């Protein structure tokens, strides 16, 4: 809606000022009346212009298709500012000195009390050298209730709304809602890169038990966790998992995310992780010079392939798991495993290899009916 349609033309503005003044015009001498008229008119015009600046500014450039955001709870009585400015402010406030942020997406189902979001935040608080990383974590809320809950529990929240799509319910694996959510995420992450920010993207069902930054490769543009790691970080046959990656903002990574997003048309019906498995071998990736690395599951594990030693683990992902209840069950056990390990003395921690009590309710078998890529992973693990 244009400003003209919101507030009317300049003629309406002058008539508004006149009516505002005439409503207060006292019965007094002409000189006094004239002074009052001018003072009130100027005041009304000033208030009008101030209100005018608080509405959405029309987006421009690469942000022309960016969705509207919710007004924050704290600013509920104010009009929202433009999306570009709001996202830039949130990223700037959360960024590290090198313009790196940690991002995750959240919807109502995962943000509900005693659900995924609570466990996710708890892992940062009880992890080794992870509590301070919360200062750099930005929650991307996909619906109003997720945004409201974020504003209660965390200080860096951004509401990402996709017109005509409701993401508040649990999005089951490979359903249309799930696919739309995954591809919307890829498009948003490309935007973050174009704004000049590096990011670690993490699914909210990934527990952060140790600071992962010392385990990242300094020379990689794009590095990603795996469902199945073959032992070499450069091996393109590794099975990546899109739920955790560290990406540096440069021309190579931006072009790669554009290519990744556009490739959904080449491979319709597949989710972003499947498409990544296809395009990682594409000559275009070699042509743009993207440096891709795959992260060892010894440090970045998951229920598909758990980290074997809690002395090494940085993150653990509730992947290879179907259904929110199953994820919650195994994530709670995972948290308790870590607390038990953390309570041990240093000598006991190092005296033997400590591992996990999970998976229990989660398994690759729970996903067996949701696409051949999962079946191929299952076969690799069995082999």
TrEMBL record:
Nucleotide-diphospho-sugar transferase domain sequence ranges: 133-331
InterPro entries linked to this entry: At1g28695/At4g15970-like (IPR044821), Nucl-diP-sugar_transferase (IPR005069)
Any single Pfam family the record assigns to this protein: Nucleotid_trans
Protein name stated in the entry: Nucleotide-diphospho-sugar transferase domain-containing protein
Organism of derivation: Tripterygium wilfordii
């Amino acid at each position: 809606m244009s400003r003209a349609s919101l507030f009317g033309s300049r003629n309406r503005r002058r008539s508004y000022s006149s009516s505002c003044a005439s409503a207060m015009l006292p019965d007094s001498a002409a000189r006094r009346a004239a002074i009052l008229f001018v003072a009130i008119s100027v005041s009304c015009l000033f208030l009008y212009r101030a209100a005018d600046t608080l509405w959405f500014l029309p987006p421009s450039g690469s942000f022309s298709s960016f969705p509207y955001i919710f007004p924050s709870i704290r600013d509920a009585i104010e009009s929202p500012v433009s999306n570009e400015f709001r996202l830039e402010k949130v990223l700037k406030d959360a960024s590290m000195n090198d313009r790196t942020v940690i991002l995750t997406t959240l919807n109502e189902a995962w943000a509900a009390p005693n659900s995924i979001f609570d466990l996710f935040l708890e892992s940062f608080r009880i992890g080794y050298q992870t509590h301070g990383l919360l200062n750099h974590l930005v929650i991307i809320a996909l619906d109003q209730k997720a945004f409201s809950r974020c504003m209660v529990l965390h200080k860096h929240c951004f509401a990402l709304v996709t017109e005509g799509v409701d993401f508040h319910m649990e999005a089951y694996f490979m359903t249309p809602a799930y696919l739309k959510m995954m591809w919307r995420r890829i498009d948003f992450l490309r935007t973050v890169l174009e704004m000049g920010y590096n990011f670690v993207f993490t699914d909210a069902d990934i527990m952060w038990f140790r600071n992962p930054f010392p385990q990242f490769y300094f020379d990689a543009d794009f590095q990603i966790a795996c469902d199945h790691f073959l032992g070499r970080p450069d091996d393109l046959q590794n099975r990546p998992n899109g739920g955790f990656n560290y990406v540096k903002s440069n021309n190579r990574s931006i072009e790669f995310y554009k290519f990744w997003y556009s490739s959904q048309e080449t491979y319709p019906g597949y989710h972003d992780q499947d498409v990544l498995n296809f395009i990682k071998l594409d000559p275009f990736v070699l042509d743009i010079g993207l440096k891709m690395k795959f992260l060892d599951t010894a440090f970045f594990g998951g229920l598909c392939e758990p980290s074997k030693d809690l002395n090494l683990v940085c993150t653990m992902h509730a992947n290879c798991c179907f259904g929110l209840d199953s994820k919650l069950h195994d994530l709670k056990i995972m948290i308790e495993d870590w607390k038990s390990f953390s309570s041990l003395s240093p000598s006991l921690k190092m005296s033997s290899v400590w591992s996990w009590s999970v998976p229990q309710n989660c398994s690759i078998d729970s996903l067996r009916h949701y696409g051949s890529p999962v079946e191929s992973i299952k076969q690799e693990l069995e082999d």
